């Protein structure tokens, strides 16, 4: 290769390295290079000096202590915010200082927030007329400050009608609108950024006036609960609609990027509460885009997207907020005929759960049910029990096909025939084992033989399934199976973190005679329940349901173990709530008190009903 060609190749690789911002040094891991523009943007940002860092560390220590009055707290916050002036940006971008400011913001007034946002904008813009929050929004510490400030503004919206705060509120609106304009202009950049996406989500909720709470252990929050509404504002509503409409121009980003997808999900949820028509427009727009990507194939469905972790979660949210017309289009064009195969997929089964749970009418639910139930055993084989639970909950919600589903479940667990096997169905459901796997081909012929296989291995989804089946209008088979459990299995169930909930729901469906039989079966075992974390909760439930004679029987059973209960971390609550010391010393007086409490509870129940 001649020297001129070598020079051209060198220039090409130098240019490529600059554009991709990637190091190609041999033997070293690829490193992310900083763009020159980023250096120029952050060159004017000061660092927090050691003296200020020490001051804010002492502020953090003071915040750990309680304030004697609200006035003292407000005065302290005002003094600290006066020290923030002039160093808001370095404080927000400092790893320790930002934590202090983040704790102060929930206590800030409207005026203090105005001053903070004004200083942040002025210093970050560096004399420019345009808003320039990007360095702060995309900073690992600064993003938390912006997110907390927006959440505080949401809570302050309820005070905007106050005459003293109205002037400050107008200034605050001005800064928020400038921030919104910048976010709309650079929406893909902010949404794809790990830290920036959280700020955009907080901005969406603040503009829409709906603060979504964090997800629960189940992975999601119902749209009807977990919301904190604030008064609507025409200014913010208009800004929200502009941002929402802009999001439709970047559907590919929201569909494929793990950081951006939750932003669109948040927009959908806020729209569902505030702007239902816009919500349906956004959902239909996303589905149209997905369909357009698959138009060349023989089958126009979204299965490839259902099986992707990022896009499937987005589709779940679209299903959840869909009204009847959009839901029908989504189901008939993309889900119908594929529900069983999707339910067997490790990721696609979650959109199927949402389809089942969100069916808007009994007619649509019946169509879904009829397609899935014949293949229920194949779904069970993949251990995707969430799909089966949603089907059971749908049967309760729509009042449809309850007996048919229960019969299919008995067949799936191989305990439908002969009828004697049905008495074991509760154990099979709770452990998610078929009859042969549970008893290992040794069929119990009566209750005595059933004791030979002690209950163990109760699983979370199995517990949920039994709780749901107990809610059926005819729960005789499942309830009878639970009532036939020996006392040792009942103790195991009560002391299990998942099984205790089954026993809790079971007691709600027992009549007085059946409840008395349950207490008789547990007699002699109550001390084990009382000294267990989960069993003690069942004891409280049983106590509140019992009449005076039953309470007396429970107290007599526990009284000999009163010393053990008082020394146990869980049992001492039982000893106190049941007044066992009083029972041992003044039994007659104890009975009078319990009788009065039962009468009082009945009176209040009658009033509430």
UniProtKB/TrEMBL annotation:
One Pfam family, short name: PUF_NOP9
Biased composition (Basic residues): 23-33
Domain of life assignment: Eukaryota
Pumilio-type repeats, residues: 83-118, 483-520, 521-556
Keywords for this protein: Nucleus, Repeat
Region of interest called Disordered, as start-end residue ranges on this chain: 1-46
Listed Basic and acidic residues bias regions: 1-22, 36-46
Keyword Acetylation recorded: no
Domain PUM-HD span(s) in chain numbering: 498-609
Listed PANTHER family: NUCLEOLAR PROTEIN 9
Protein name: NOP9 protein
Organism of derivation: Polypterus senegalus
């Amino acid at each position: 290769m001649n020297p001129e060609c070598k020079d051209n190749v060198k220039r090409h690789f130098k240019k490529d390295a600059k554009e991709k911002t990637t190091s190609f040094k041999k033997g070293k891991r690829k490193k992310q290079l900083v763009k020159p523009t980023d250096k120029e943007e952050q060159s004017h940002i000061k660092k927090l000096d050691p003296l200020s860092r020490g001051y804010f560390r002492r502020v953090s220590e003071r915040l750990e202590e309680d304030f004697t009055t609200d006035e003292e707290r407000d005065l302290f916050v005002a003094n600290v915010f006066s020290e923030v002036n002039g160093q808001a940006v370095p404080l927000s971008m400092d790893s320790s200082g930002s934590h202090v400011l983040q704790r102060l913001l929930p206590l800030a007034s409207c005026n203090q927030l105005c001053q903070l946002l004004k200083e942040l904008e002025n210093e970050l813009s560096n004399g420019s007329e345009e808003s320039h929050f990007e360095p702060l929004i995309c900073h690992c510490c600064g993003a938390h400050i912006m997110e907390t400030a927006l959440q505080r503004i949401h809570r302050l919206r309820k005070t905007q009608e106050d005459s003293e705060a109205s002037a400050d509120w107008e200034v605050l609106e001005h800064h928020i609108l400038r921030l919104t304009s910048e976010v709309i202009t650079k929406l893909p950049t902010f949404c794809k950024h790990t830290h920036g996406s959280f700020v955009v989500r907080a901005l969406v909720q603040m503009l829409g006036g709906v603060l979504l709470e964090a997800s629960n252990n189940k992975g999601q929050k119902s749209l009807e609960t977990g919301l904190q509404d604030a008064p609507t504002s025409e200014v913010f509503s208009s800004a929200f609609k502009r941002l929402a409409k802009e999001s439709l121009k970047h559907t590919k980003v929201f569909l494929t990027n793990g950081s951006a997808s939750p932003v669109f999900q948040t927009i959908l949820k806020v729209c569902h509460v505030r702007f239902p028509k816009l919500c349906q427009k956004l959902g239909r727009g996303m589905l149209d885009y997905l369909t357009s990507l698959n138009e060349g194939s023989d089958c126009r469905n979204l299965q490839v997207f259902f099986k992707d972790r990022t896009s499937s979660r987005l589709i779940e949210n679209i299903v959840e907020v869909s009204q009847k017309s959009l839901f029908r289009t989504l189901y008939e064009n993309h889900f119908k005929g594929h529900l069983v195969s999707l339910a067997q997929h490790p990721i696609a089964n979650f959109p199927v759960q949402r389809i089942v749970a969100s069916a808007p009418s009994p007619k649509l639910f019946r169509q879904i049910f009829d397609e899935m139930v014949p293949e229920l055993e194949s779904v069970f084989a993949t251990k995707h029990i969430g799909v089966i639970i949603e089907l059971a909950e749908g049967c309760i919600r729509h009042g449809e096909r309850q007996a048919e589903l229960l019969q299919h479940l008995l067949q799936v667990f191989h305990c439908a025939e002969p009828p004697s096997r049905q008495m074991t169905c509760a154990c099979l459901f709770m452990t998610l084992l078929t009859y042969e796997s549970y008893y290992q081909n040794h069929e119990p012929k009566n209750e005595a033989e059933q004791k030979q296989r002690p209950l163990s291995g109760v699983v979370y989804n199995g517990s949920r399934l039994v709780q749901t089946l107990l809610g059926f209008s005819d729960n005789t088979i499942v309830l009878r199976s639970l009532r036939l459990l020996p006392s040792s299995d009942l103790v195991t169930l009560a002391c299990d973190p998942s099984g205790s909930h089954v026993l809790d729901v079971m007691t709600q469906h027992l009549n007085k005679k059946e409840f008395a039989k349950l207490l008789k079966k547990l007699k002699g075992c109550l001390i084990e329940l009382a000294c267990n974390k989960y069993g003690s909760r069942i004891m409280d439930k049983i106590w509140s349901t019992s009449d005076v004679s039953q309470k007396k029987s429970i107290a007599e059973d526990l009284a000999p173990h009163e010393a053990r209960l008082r020394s146990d971390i869980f049992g001492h609550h039982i000893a106190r709530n049941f007044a066992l010391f009083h029972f041992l010393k003044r039994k007659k007086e104890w009975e009078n008190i319990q009788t009065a409490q039962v009468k009082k509870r009945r009176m209040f129940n009658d009033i509430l009903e």
